[in-house]
Amino acid sequence: MHHEISGLSNDCPTVKNILLLDSEGKRVAVRYYSDDWPTNAAKLAYEKSVFTKTQKTNARAEAEIIILENRIVVYRFVQDLHFFVTGEDDENELMLATVLQGFFDGVTLVLRNNVDLREALENLDLILLCFDEIVDRGIVLETDGSIIAGKVASHSIDDNSPLSEQTISQALAAAREHLTRSLLR
Amino acid sequence: MAQPLVKKDDDRDEEADYSPFLGIEKGAVLQEARVFHDPQLDARRCSQVITKLLYLLNQGETLTKIEATEVFFAVTKLFQSKDIGLRRMVYLMIKELSPSADEVIIVTSSLMKDMNSRTDLFRANAIRVLCRITDGTLLAQIERYLKQAIVDKNPVVASAALVSGIHLLQTNPEIVKRWSNEVQEAVQSRAALVQFHALALLHQIRQNDRLAVNKLVASLTKGTVRSPLAQCLLIRYISQVIKESSFNSQAGERPFYDYLEGCLRHKAEVVIFEAARAITELSNVTTRELTPAITVLQLFLSSSKPVLRFAALRTLNKVAMTHPMAVTNCNIDMESLISDQNRSIATLAITTLLKTGNESSVDRLMKQITNFMSDIADEFKIVVVEAIRSLCLKFPLKYRSLMNFLSNILREEGGFEYKKAIVDSIVILIRDIPDAKESGLLHLCEFIEDCEFTYLSTQILHFLGNEGPKTSDPSKYIRYIYNRVILENATVRASAVSTLAKFGAMVDSLKPRIFVLLRRCVFDNDDEVRDRATLYLNTLGDGSVAETEKDVKEFLFGSLDIPLTNMETSLKNYIQDPTEEPFDINSVPKEVKSQSLAEKKAPGKKPAASSTPAAAPTSAADAYERLLSSIPEFASFGKLFKSSIPVELTEAETEYSVNVVKHIYDSHVVFQYNCTNTIPEQLLENVTVIVDASDAEEFSEVGTKPLRSLPYDTPGQTFVAFEKPEGVPAVGKFSNVLRFTVKEVDPTTGEAEDDGVEDEYQLEDFEVVAADYILKVGVSNFKNAWESLGPDGERIDEYGLGPRESLAEAVSTVINLLGMQPCEGTEVVPSNSRSHTCLLSGIYIGNVKVLVRLSFGIDGAKEVAMKLAVRSENENVSEAIHEIVASG
């Protein structure tokens, strides 16, 4: 796995990594956009640390936030999946939360609300395409979950039930409702 | 949707650990990749294989060069398929493989075809892939399409081109800068994200042109900004414009302030926050300017979203450091956040309150914190301890309750770092608040009765030895110290013996009792403890070789003016080469070694606590000394006095990267040029640096040592030596040209061609400055050292430094100019202070100890004046220091 480094000027909002881990802290899919972690071992160590430090928190209804090794991490959990976005210490926290929300919504949509580890692994190609549409080498490409999912899913033309732009908004509504219901339960 | 990669089991619920990638293995997947060569491509199958490969790479698996090339060529076959899903995976795979230049050529035509496809997604993705893997030459070919793409009707395509432009600007600025007109047009786009990306690119293209940036910012503040992200960018640019404008807060309205304030009413929270933060960070922000920003941040504090509460609180915490009064309105909101579920928020709330609270609220706050401490992690506790320390220094009258708090938490469970933070805080309070001394020392004594950390015990014993004898009743500490001799490990016992000796030396009435105790220590089973006891018994006058009282005190309390790490290395070397000669302490280098890069990078969040000097980790000086002494031409130059830190002579990311280290000898200097060749297709031979010293009159070149061969990415050194007048701090400017023979290297075989071409490469100039002749050598007790040098070699003068950005900037400029070691943390200027004293120490060439006391003052117009007092063993050296400042 190689890096996607870019020497960007400081004022452009940037993301250092996006992580999708399972409930044991194992990688489902990760993307690094910074040379802060030059080796796979360094990356694994970071993932372990992020996972352990956030494990006990309740990040299910709302995105949570923590400062770790002088970086900001925003995160959210659903079922057995843990979503993380890491940024610079002085990055606008809400900007990172917006990226996390886009990532989260996008994945929810391409997995058609069945957001769990098994579904994520079975559709790993779509998850990887989501990563690709959210951030390009550290620069935020898109933060709207339905647009991200639309770009990812528009390729499944030969599928029986394509996820067109129209059904996206329905799916997003369904996703929100689903989430609310699962919270009320 | 994509199909599962392996057939689903019928009863998936029973098999919880099911994963489509279970047992997947690289070799097998590479075998499977043969389907890419099938004449009848099965798009779905191929997608699955790519997904498996991407999965493996994402898990940290790597492909060998050969494997990667094979996969790459196989993947390029897949462009034959029209399947959209497969094409997307092909794009991902190509990006992941980051092909080499000659491989890129293979896919270029396919990608260029896709760049002109009617499918928007193809266009967008092909642009991103091609720009990612391309080099400069290819870029010129596709430039026309990229310019078109920037103004493409489809926002995805436009964004793809703009974001690629942002990346390409780093490597091919001259090409990207030609796209200004198109980018300018894209800034007006109705698509939100396109505007964001266009703005980012346009600003980067123009960032060195202040006028153009001002114009861009001004026009955007009048127009419409559609995306919150673009709005955030604009706010950042405005902050820079304000910072660079010569605005004077006394003179009236700050430019663009109204606009920032307007952003506080934006509908997107991310924008409101960005604007509020920007206002709080304005330099010399007034209370009136701050108020609206604080008001919105206060609203965020009661948000249901943790991220929002955290962001607002973190900003308020920073404001509280400089404008505590402005934040007091939020105190009630912050107090309710002490019980926030998110511990980061709770800790921020506490520490902010500690900064904004007034003297009367201290006791109430401390009560709340006591409940809170038990259920937070050590790292947060440390933050709280540091906040309490500064609170105590702010309200010295409250020391009793704060010191009690510290001593209580010192007794509770906790890790080393946490305990150390507490001990450091108590030590600082004892030093700064005289009234707190006796109770503080007793708290420390009680702590060492039951302390599991040897390091902390010895630190406290050392401190006790210096402070205890000066208290009203020194005898009450003896029991605690002697208990250590009975109960602890050898390291602590040895420290306790030294501490006892200090009491004996300072307090005559205790001397006889100390002798009794020390005599018992002579029977200790540890060598070091016994040796120390015997030594102290003799020096204190119990034995035959009684010393004078002054010598005894010097011996016990005087500091070693040699960095301990240097001492350690020298002793290790001494032991390695057995010799009859005794170890000579004067042979130990006195320079404080510069911190390693890794340490410098870590932002200094915590102020260096107490008197413990920062460890000097690297031994660059030793490495230099070894390297230089191995070169016969330089062997006759004598002892190396100082090596500078590397000075870069090339910009980052150029073909050849060169920096220089200046090695100073008594009558010579040697320039060590560290060269790196960053072009894989080149081998450099016979590398030298041609130095023009016409602006350095006192120097004459005496020799060079060329570098025979400089292959790609393997750093090498070439040297040039100069003679200069002996012991004189000669200065001058040197211009440099890198000269070499370049040979082409075949990248596939790695072999160089036989014939090379002579070539030159212009490097930047550098100077030998006065600071190169001063070693950074710290003293642990500046006051003692200052007094011991006496007023004879003292020279005092005053200087006007003109208008400066800030007091801190003036202080650091002078420190850098002199190249001396700041002592006792005096290099840190508290914000908003109007005067500051800075203490420096160093060794001047010729091994002369120099101490400097700098007193700075700043007035309303930011004019800085400085009084410079220099003491040294040689008054000429004191003069020379003044000379440096006068001519700097």
UniProtKB/TrEMBL annotation, chain A:
<keyword id="KW-0333">Golgi apparatus</keyword>
<comment type="similarity">
    <text>Belongs to the adaptor complexes small subunit family.</text>
</comment>
<keyword id="KW-0963">Cytoplasm</keyword>
<feature type="domain" description="AP complex mu/sigma subunit">
    <location>
        <begin position="14"/>
        <end position="153"/>
    </location>
</feature>
<protein>
    <recommendedName>
        <fullName>Coatomer subunit zeta</fullName>
    </recommendedName>
</protein>
<dbReference type="GO" id="GO:0006886">
    <property type="term" value="P:intracellular protein transport"/>
</dbReference>
<comment type="function">
    <text>The coatomer is a cytosolic protein complex that binds to dilysine motifs and reversibly associates with Golgi non-clathrin-coated vesicles, which further mediate biosynthetic protein transport from the ER, via the Golgi up to the trans Golgi network. Coatomer complex is required for budding from Golgi membranes, and is essential for the retrograde Golgi-to-ER transport of dilysine-tagged proteins. The zeta subunit may be involved in regulating the coat assembly and, hence, the rate of biosynthetic protein transport due to its association-dissociation properties with the coatomer complex.</text>
</comment>
<keyword id="KW-0472">Membrane</keyword>
<comment type="subunit">
    <text>Oligomeric complex that consists of at least the alpha, beta, beta', gamma, delta, epsilon and zeta subunits.</text>
</comment>
<dbReference type="GO" id="GO:0000139">
    <property type="term" value="C:Golgi membrane"/>
</dbReference>
<dbReference type="InterPro" id="IPR011012">
    <property type="entry name" value="Longin-like_dom_sf"/>
</dbReference>
<keyword id="KW-0931">ER-Golgi transport</keyword>
<keyword id="KW-0653">Protein transport</keyword>
<keyword id="KW-0968">Cytoplasmic vesicle</keyword>
<dbReference type="Pfam" id="PF01217">
    <property type="entry name" value="Clat_adaptor_s"/>
</dbReference>
<dbReference type="InterPro" id="IPR022775">
    <property type="entry name" value="AP_mu_sigma_su"/>
</dbReference>
<dbReference type="GO" id="GO:0030126">
    <property type="term" value="C:COPI vesicle coat"/>
</dbReference>
<keyword id="KW-0813">Transport</keyword>
<dbReference type="InterPro" id="IPR039652">
    <property type="entry name" value="Coatomer_zeta"/>
</dbReference>
<dbReference type="GO" id="GO:0006891">
    <property type="term" value="P:intra-Golgi vesicle-mediated transport"/>
</dbReference>
<dbReference type="GO" id="GO:0006890">
    <property type="term" value="P:retrograde vesicle-mediated transport, Golgi to endoplasmic reticulum"/>
</dbReference>
Automatic annotation (TrEMBL), chain B:
<keyword id="KW-0653">Protein transport</keyword>
<dbReference type="InterPro" id="IPR016024">
    <property type="entry name" value="ARM-type_fold"/>
</dbReference>
<keyword id="KW-0333">Golgi apparatus</keyword>
<keyword id="KW-0813">Transport</keyword>
<feature type="domain" description="Coatomer subunit gamma C-terminal">
    <location>
        <begin position="771"/>
        <end position="885"/>
    </location>
</feature>
<dbReference type="InterPro" id="IPR011989">
    <property type="entry name" value="ARM-like"/>
</dbReference>
<dbReference type="GO" id="GO:0030126">
    <property type="term" value="C:COPI vesicle coat"/>
</dbReference>
<dbReference type="Pfam" id="PF16381">
    <property type="entry name" value="Coatomer_g_Cpla"/>
</dbReference>
<dbReference type="InterPro" id="IPR012295">
    <property type="entry name" value="TBP_dom_sf"/>
</dbReference>
<dbReference type="InterPro" id="IPR002553">
    <property type="entry name" value="Clathrin/coatomer_adapt-like_N"/>
</dbReference>
<dbReference type="GO" id="GO:0006888">
    <property type="term" value="P:endoplasmic reticulum to Golgi vesicle-mediated transport"/>
</dbReference>
<dbReference type="InterPro" id="IPR013041">
    <property type="entry name" value="Clathrin_app_Ig-like_sf"/>
</dbReference>
<comment type="subunit">
    <text>Oligomeric complex that consists of at least the alpha, beta, beta', gamma, delta, epsilon and zeta subunits.</text>
</comment>
<dbReference type="InterPro" id="IPR013040">
    <property type="entry name" value="Coatomer_gsu_app_Ig-like_dom"/>
</dbReference>
<dbReference type="GO" id="GO:0009306">
    <property type="term" value="P:protein secretion"/>
</dbReference>
<keyword id="KW-0963">Cytoplasm</keyword>
<dbReference type="Pfam" id="PF08752">
    <property type="entry name" value="COP-gamma_platf"/>
</dbReference>
<dbReference type="GO" id="GO:0000139">
    <property type="term" value="C:Golgi membrane"/>
</dbReference>
<dbReference type="GO" id="GO:0005793">
    <property type="term" value="C:endoplasmic reticulum-Golgi intermediate compartment"/>
</dbReference>
<dbReference type="InterPro" id="IPR009028">
    <property type="entry name" value="Coatomer/calthrin_app_sub_C"/>
</dbReference>
<dbReference type="GO" id="GO:0005198">
    <property type="term" value="F:structural molecule activity"/>
</dbReference>
<dbReference type="InterPro" id="IPR037067">
    <property type="entry name" value="Coatomer_gsu_app_sf"/>
</dbReference>
